[in-house]
Design a protein that fits this description.
The chain is elongated and about 75 Å long. The protein is mainly α and 322 residues long. The longest helix has 29 residues, at 213-241. Helix 9 runs antiparallel to helix 10 and helix 11 (283-296) crosses helix 12 (302-313). The model is unreliable at 12-23 and 318-322 (pLDDT under 50). The protein folds into two domains: 53-240, no CATH class; 244-319, Leucine-rich Repeat Variant. It contains twelve helices and no strands.
Length: 322
Amino acid sequence: MLKYVVMSSCTLIVVVVAFFAVQEEEPKATRSFSDEFLAKLSLPDDLPEYYNAASVTTDDAAPHYQKMIEYFSRDDIHAKLGNPKKDRKIEDIKPLVDMLLAGFNPGSCADGFADGYYPFNHERKPTYLNARKVLHSLFIKYADHLVHSSRENITPEDRALAEKIIQATFTFGRHLFERNVRISIRSWGLGTMNYAALKYNAMVEGKQLTDDAPKYRDAMQQWATHTQKIYKVFNDKEMLVRTPRKKFNIVDLSTIALKDKDPTFRVEAFLVLSKAQYWEGYRQFKKIAADTIKKGLEDDHDEVRRAAKLANETKPAARQVK
């Protein structure tokens, strides 16, 4: 009798294992990935100048931008300027505008100047607070104040300064997008460029700027045409790598992590994998995650390797040391 029970139990285990082996299908992608979709997102090199070259500085922009972001993030300054629902005073905005203009150099900006404000650990908040949502609107508010119809005796210098501020705001967005890797920083840059281009066009139509403004507006619109196209693809990729857990697909994420030509999305894919590798899933799921992370450690981009290393060293949540 005992022998029979043991044999039956063994048979049952074999059947169960065999059943799940049959049931476990190999994970499949939710979409096809064209070379165009996996290409690096960048602006063309032959776009026209959207600014007066005589008005730009020779300084590298990065230190001025960092000073500006850190100034905005101070508790006392953020209390005055960080809430869009509050009335922000023009005199409080001026120091930020001065820093923006000090860094108005389209041709020189150090790489990665803003990446450090966005932590690799998704559970930590960016140190720039809500600058991403507020800074550009503060600059435009200041420019609008200079040439607003309610002001008397608007001077040519006022118009030229307002024009310069909007061009500098566009340039700030351009550097955020072109000189950084982190997904939220580059998205911030695209949004800033599009916002500045819209406001610049509105001020040109309202004849609030200099006589040269239409020429620079037309050039800026050429840039904006490309940023809008990039923005759509950028958002598609961002949604793919940041898919909620219920819709998560390991093959999609692995494809982005290993084959996307843009390091921004490879970095984000590995950061997501640092946690996703421990989500419940079939053995194939965990194997794909482990193989992807292993290959990421050999990536040719420093930040991608750093993200893959973090994923490789991340422990299951239950065993993580806080």
